[in-house]
Amino acid sequence: MDPYQKSLEDVDAALKRLNATLASYKMSSTTKPAVPDSSNTQRPVSTTAPKAKTSQKVKTAPKDNPVKPTPVPKRDAAPKTKVAPQANGNGNHHAAPTPSPALPPKPVQPSNGHVVPAIPSTVAPDNDRSHVESISEHPQARPGRLWQEVLQVRFCDRSSNETTLHGPGLAEMKKAGQEADLEDIERLLEDITSMHETFAHGLYDGYVIPARIVLSQKYLQLGYPDLAAGEAYKALMLCDSVRDPADIYHGDVVAQLHQLIPQIPLVERIRQLKLDVEGEKAPPTSRAPGEDMDVEVDVWCRYHYLPWAYRLLSASLMFCACLKSACYYARMGMENLEKSMEGQRDSWLDDVITGCHSAVQQIQHPEYVVLPGDEKNFPELGMVRREVYPWNEWEPDRMEELPEINAMMAEVAPKLEVRATELPALAVYDDEDDDEIPMCTQLGVFAKEDIALGEIILSETSVLTANNKLQDSLCDACNADLPALDSPAASEVRECDQCETVFCNTACLEKAEATYHRATCGNDLDVLLRDVPPEEAAESLYTLLLMRAIAMADVQDCHPLELDEVRYIWGDFIDEPWQDFVAPTFTHESRIDPDEHDKAHGDIVRTLPWSFEHNVRLPIQILERMEIDPFGESNYDLWVCNTLFAKFRGTASARLSGQKGSGTRARGPEVSAVHPMWCLANHSCDPNVTWEWGTNIELKVRAEGVQWHGKGEEGGVRLKREGGIKKGEEILNHYCDIELPVRERREWASGALGGDCQCERCLWEERHEVEAGGEDSEEGSNEDDGSDEQ
Ligand SMILES: C[S@@+](CC[C@H](N)C(=O)[O-])C[C@H]1O[C@@H](n2cnc3c(N)ncnc32)[C@H](O)[C@@H]1O
């Protein structure tokens, strides 16, 4: 068909759709239910039809945490802007007692001693519920600041012959680029908490695209570009679903937009629609002719929400150093915009591409060679903030809950107890600047009585396990090796009736059924993360652990942070992150200059490794495969996943595969697990226990101390100390192969410790210029063959 004729027909069709939409105004303004406002405390419940596609799992209400009279013991240290260079580091620190400006007094829910902003109890004048009835009848007049922000999300205005792009922009904090205004932080935290509540309790649900965009903006303003990327990606997924009637979310998203759009002032709606129809010279979408697409939904999605989703996603990813995916989404956004905006380029997206390329050029690493144009090979792993998020109500006050922790410990280690202990805060210690290492209070494990040599003092089992072998003979629950087919124990092996998952015996099968298996059974989750290339093996194990934790929470009907295996693990969180917070700026310069990218995190120390793939895309995919709705189930929000990852790094034990000495390169860790009591023991390179992990994980008292090796003034070796453990002595485990020389040991353990080990042996050997490892061969598989690590 003649293109001119076709475009005329398209405009004609669009005008017809517009007329139909305009004709529906009267009806919609009086009969469509209003979408409740997030900032109101008593709102009518949304009349949105229940979701048909995904199982809406029962949400567990947050624990009813009573106000605790005792203040939480602080882990304090002055955080510095220091980004750990290594990919796997769990760098981290706990902060030292610095006079803290902290946040001003807030209405806290002091369950755990962490700041939790409350939703304002006072209702703003414009939220006066006495107007509810009349407002429902005139939805465009709905009150509420947050909801108004959602309604105002706009991007494009085709009000002149030249298409112009503009939007609300990121309203910067009052003092962007300076120490943040506490009121600003407070207000944004309240907004974020309020939006979480709103998604969680169904006042409006997670399918409201502009609400996701607003939440993404707010995360970005508070220095959480990682969380902003997650929300922007969700907005993008929802926009895609609007344009694809076959998409599983299509019905819900469109239904939400049908409720939202009538609340946008009529004049504005007509203006936008008119401009759109007039400006639509070439239809940008691949809509089938005659397809019954609501013109308004299409306009708002295509011209307002989609561009914001691309902008926020690509810029946030760039700030998180995920340069490959940042470029990918910036280019995708550009292509999309150019189609719908007649070749107009978007300065944000251009900036992101420039910023990513400049960042790549700045990388100076002998092993990193990437051509500037090779965006597919741009780096993809960054570091983000690691903290107990201010809205996280699940983190327990471990000092307060020591009796509960000790009850759990008594079950697996009757002769041990957990106590508070002082440790060097390694992640905030920068030995170039600091004279003294700041200390922090954490937990440790201590002997309740004298314990003899060789005694097994802890034996623990866990189903929070993972392995990244697709075809291997491991029990799915405990991850122990399955018995050989010709061995007597082979008859005990059991298989799930529904799928082919194998367990070492009936006990493991029953435990799996009771704790997690129902969520994973037959869902083909294995293919997502198993048999990955060696360089991805470690990351994939953490994500597999996340997957198991999600399955456990789903089957046990609790919040993932509430699981016994997770609750008391300290995620090496930074304390008092706000004391040095500098409000980010979002200018052209801050996007194109890689030196400015760190500032998007509020200038706060970052120690949690993060990638788009493992922290956003895969968690969402895992949820979908388990038939958990990632938009409707806030228990599995991406901040929850970040918190779980923080807890797993530094506590998960892992077994390496590959045969040392045989010339075969190790493939990387293949089996991993979190044992919540075992992992409370701290590290020393002169440990008093060995550990071994088969079906159970065990701690055994060492027969004798480790040989220290040194040269120099004192010279020679230091005598081994006596074995055995005295009452009151701390149980010291080891997170690395203790046969290695000091430098290699430190390098290995730094991921789990957050910095260089400062144990007595390391300090002594460092002083005595150790050059070679010891000759002693210790018993126990873990330190002998170097095949295990924590
Ligand atoms: C497996 S956990 C040990 C239990 C932990 N102390 C707790 O309170 O839960 C590992 C974390 O403990 C701390 N840690 C353990 N051993 C340490 C050591 N020798 N020096 C400094 N920090 C240590 C680090 O913060 C590390 O990330």
Task: Name its key features.
alpha+beta; binds S-adenosylmethionine; Beta-clip-like; 4-stranded antiparallel sheet; 790 residues; 3-stranded antiparallel sheet; 25 helices
Short description:
The model is unreliable at 22-143, 281-293, 657-666 and 772-789 (pLDDT under 50). Among the domains are: 3-40 and 104-284 and 291-367, no CATH class; 399-462 and 681-790, SET domain (Beta-clip-like, Beta Complex). The strands form eight sheets. Strands 7-12-11-19 form a four-stranded antiparallel sheet.
Task: Walk me through what this model shows.
The protein is of the alpha+beta class and 790 residues long. Among the domains are: 3-40 and 104-284 and 291-367, no CATH class; 399-462 and 681-790, Beta-clip-like, CATH 2.170.270.10. 36% of the residues lie in helices and 9% in strands. It is built from 25 helices and 19 strands. The strands form eight sheets. It has a four-stranded antiparallel beta sheet. Helix 6 packs antiparallel against helix 7 and helix 7 (225-242) packs across helix 8. The longest helix is centred in the middle third of the chain and has 25 residues, at 295-319. The radius of gyration is 28 Å and the shape is globular. The model is unreliable at 22-143, 281-293, 657-666 and 772-789 (pLDDT under 50). The site of S-adenosylmethionine (SAM) has 21 residues, from strand 4, strand 5, strand 13 and helix 23.
